[in-house]
Every structure is written in C-alpha cells, then in structure tokens.
C-alpha cells in the first residue's frame, strides 16, 4: 500500500520539503511512499527545489479525486495518509475523513483531530517540521543525501527566519549545522537569497496575497483567518491597503488578520477585519490599519495565541 505524504493547504517551504524528505526516509525504511502537495509550489519553495534539482510533488485536490490527480497511483481500499506540518482538518486535504490517517509529524499545537484507529504521532515544540525529520533520519541511521539535506536545511531556515523567529530552538540550530556539513553553503547568504526569491509580490492579486499563506482557526466559536506574507517590499502591500481592506472585509470570516512580516525589521504590519480593541489587547499597540507590531514574526507562537487570548477576553 502506498503511503500518501503531504503538508497543509497553501503549502509553504516546510510543507513541501518535509513531504519530500519524509517520503525519502519512508522508502529507505522499506515502505512505499509518495510525496504530494495540497496546492501549487510558492516562489520560495520553488527556489529551493530548483537549487537542489528536485521535482515538485504532484498536487492533490481532494481524497475523492486522488486517482484523477495522479493517474499513476493505484490504491486498494482507503488511502493511507501521513500528514506533515499540520494536524487540523481545516488545513488538510478535502475529504480527509474518508482516508486512513496513519501518521502525523508536526511542530504545531494539537488541532482537535480524531481517528478511529491508533496512529503514530510525532509532535515537537521546535521551529520546523524538517528539524523533527532530521532527527528521525538520525534515529534510524539513514544517511541523508545532498539534495534531501538541502531541502531539510532550507525549510528550517525558512520557518525560523534564519533563527530570528521566537520558535527557534537549539535543536533547529544544531540540525542546520549538521545538515550544512553535507550541503556546504554560506548559510546566511543562501537564506537571504531564498528569502529574496520568495518575497517578491509582483504579479499577485490582492486575493492571492491574502491567501498565499492562510490558515483558518476556531477561536471561542468565531471563524478566524490569519494570513501571513513575508516580504522585503512592504510598500507593495501598504500602498494598496484600501484594496486589501475591501477584500478582507468582504470575506465570511468573523475576524481576519493579514500580517505583512518585514524580515529585516523583524516585525509585522497588520491589516485586519476585527475590533480595534482585540488587536490592541492582543499586541499591546494602539490599533489602526497598518499598525506595526515589533517582534511579531511567528503566526504559531505569537499571532495565534495572542489573538486567541484577546478574543477570550472580549467575548
């Protein structure tokens, strides 16, 4: 039986690289596994794949369309799936309930998923899923080839913002140090080249930018969406603030926050559909559209928990 390995919708660099890397590990351990993506590869991840000469995964649209999306895949019974970089139904493939979930490897909070059978679950409070997968290679004494080492290292640098994110741990730093013994690049230069390749917003519509890295959440019964875009060209978004607000305000979310994260200044500008008081309480700022929140670079560790507490307080 083929294991289908994939990350979350609107896949970022970690989702793409962890899918490919864990698939390689599974196959080396005697399983039959194949990596997939739940959306088109973004510019940053494509830069990584091109740099290390790795093909992008096939895109899946839903469980019911798996064999249409991948005509070479032959299934017997329910598809067996392995999730990386997420563990929430809302962030995963449509129809996941109709598949057999056999494993999760992730670095996020528990998302309330339920299964009818036991599964393998590896959740660790580190900066990147690929840090966990690097550890799994070590535990299984499987040698990491150059291109897989490159993908693993790239994802860690991406998710930790070159170790500037508060999610960064010593385990992430150690993993990059060990992986770069195989890859042998100037880590800082490579990371900045990767960020530059991925942060250009030229050619994207307002809707595409908001949904580029977007995740839905349930906060005290409220439907909340949080989008985040990392860019070196902040003005490309802020100069179109009214257009972004018009789109955001016309979504069906009770609350929606778009964080435009400045990699150099290490903080985020916020455009939002929410009460000013919630934004003020969440981030300790005088809330206004486009407000800059110093140090806020992590959705997982800052945006989500801060907004969750603010919603609870103001419910």
From TrEMBL:
GO terms for molecular function: inorganic diphosphate phosphatase activity; metal ion binding. Its EC number is 3.6.1.1. It comes from the Bacteria. InterPro entries: DDH_dom, DHH_sf, DHHA2, DHHA2_dom_sf. One of its GO terms (cellular component) is cytoplasm. It catalyses: diphosphate + H2O = 2 phosphate + H(+). Its cofactor is Mn(2+). It holds the Pfam family DHHA2. Keywords: Hydrolase, Manganese, Metal-binding. Residues 191-311 form the DHHA2 domain. This is inorganic diphosphatase. It comes from Paraclostridium benzoelyticum.
């Amino acid at each position: 039986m083929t294991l289908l390995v994939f990350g979350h919708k609107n896949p970022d660099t970690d989702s793409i690289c962890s899918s490919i890397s864990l698939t390689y590990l599974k196959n080396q351990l005697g399983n039959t596994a194949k990596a997939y993506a739940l959306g088109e590869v973004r510019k940053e991840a494509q830069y990584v794949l091109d740099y290390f000469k790795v093909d992008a995964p096939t895109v899946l649209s839903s469980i019911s369309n798996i064999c249409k999306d991948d005509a070479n895949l032959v299934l017997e019974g329910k598809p067996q799936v392995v999730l990386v970089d997420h563990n929430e139904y809302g962030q995963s493939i449509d129809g996941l309930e109709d598949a057999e979930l056999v494993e999760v490897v992730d670095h996020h909070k528990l998302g309330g998923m339920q299964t009818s059978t036991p599964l393998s679950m590896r959740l660790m409070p580190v900066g990147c899923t690929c840090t966990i997968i690097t550890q799994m290679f070590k535990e299984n004494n499987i040698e990491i080839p150059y291109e897989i080492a490159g993908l693993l290292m790239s994802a860690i640098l991406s998710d930790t913002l070159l170790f500037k994110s508060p999610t960064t741990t010593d385990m992430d730093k150690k993993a990059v140090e060990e992986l770069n013994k195989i890859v042998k690049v100037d880590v800082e230069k490579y990371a900045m080249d990767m960020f530059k390749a991925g942060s250009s917003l030229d050619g994207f519509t307002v809707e595409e930018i908001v949904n580029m890295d977007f995740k839905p959440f349930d906060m005290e019964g409220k439907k909340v969406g949080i989008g985040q875009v990392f860019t070196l060209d902040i003005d490309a978004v802020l100069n179109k603030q009214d257009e972004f607000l018009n789109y955001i305000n016309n979504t069906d979310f009770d609350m929606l926050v778009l964080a435009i994260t400045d990699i150099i200044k290490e903080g985020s500008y916020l455009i939002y559909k929410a009460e000013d008081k919630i934004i003020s309480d969440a981030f300790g700022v005088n809330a206004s559209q486009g407000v800059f929140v110093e140090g806020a670079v992590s959705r997982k560790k800052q945006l989500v928990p801060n907004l969750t507490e603010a919603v609870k307080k103001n419910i």
